[in-house]
Amino acid sequence: MSNKIYKKFNFSVVSNSRIWSKRVKNTKSIINLALKDYKYYTNKSCKYYDITFLLTDDKHIKKLNKKYKNTNKTTNVLTFTNYHIINDNQKIRYSNIAISGDRIKEESRKLNLNFYEHFTHIVIHSLLHTNNYKHENERDFQKMKKKEILILKKFNIRNPYI
Questions:
Q1: pLDDT averaged per 10 residues in sequence order, the chain, 162 residues
Q2: Which pLDDT belongs to residue 16?
Q3: Residue 24's domain is classified under what CATH number?
Q4: Chain centre to alpha carbon of residue 32
Q5: CA 48 to chain CA mean position, Å
Q6: 162 within a domain of the structure (yes/no)
Q7: Count of domains forming the chain
Q8: What's the pTM?
Q9: What pairing do the DSSP bridges indicate for beta strands 77-85 and 9-15?
Q10: CA gap 93, 104 in Å, rounded
Q11: What is the pLDDT of residue 9?
């Protein structure tokens, strides 16, 4: 477990799968870099963000997806966000982000990206979800995709959607 704080962010990284054992250090560095540009993932109504990243595998993420999203399949990432109102109607945002290393590995091969490039994309994607970005319809998908591509460009990662 690791804790880091960036202005409005406190985050921890937890791993429960062997696929991550040699990758945890690099994944923490990527999350640190992503959160340095916190302006993309915050809004004025939230005073503070507390995020736990669970680095897991297909088996565990499928169980989470079935239990909390009523979908009996695996996915690359699940993002859960709750709020707590404090003084002056400001919020503390609590998020749990589960990422499947099996999915990242398989999808990165298909997209011809290295593991960490795709992981970076998934972290950015999930952080946008913590700030209410959605992709339930085409308009929202395009808005979120545009923001992801903009942020990925700062990491010198090509557009994964082409």
A1: 60 95 94 87 82 97 97 96 77 93 96 94 95 91 95 92 84
A2: 96
A3: 3.40.390.30
A4: 12
A5: 17
A6: no
A7: 1
A8: 0.90
A9: unpaired
A10: 26
A11: 83
Instruction: Tell me which residue has tokens 């998934």.
Output: 122
The predicted pLDDT at position 132 comes to 86
DSSP calls for 36-104:
HTGGGS--TTEEEEEEEEEEE-HHHHHHHHHHHH---S--SEEEEEEEEE-GGG-EEEEEEEEEEHHHH
Contact 5, 35 (CB under 8 A): no
Distance between CA atoms of residues 97 and 124, nearest Å: 11
Please give the residue range of the domain that contains residue 90.
2-154
Residue 73 located in a structural domain: yes
Q: What are phi and psi of 153, to 5 degrees?
A: -60, -35
161 lies in a domain? no
Output the CA angle 125-128-131, nearest 5 degrees: 155
Burial call 34-73: b when 16+ CB within 10 Å, e when fewer? bbeeeebbbeeebebbbbbbbbbbbebbbebbeeeeeeee
Chain centre distance of CA 110? 20
What is the predicted pLDDT for the residue at 7? Answer: 61
Dihedral Cα 149, 154, 158, 162, nearest 10 deg: 10
Question: Angle 115-130/101-111 helices, nearest 10 degrees?
Answer: 120
Is 105 domain-assigned?
Answer: yes
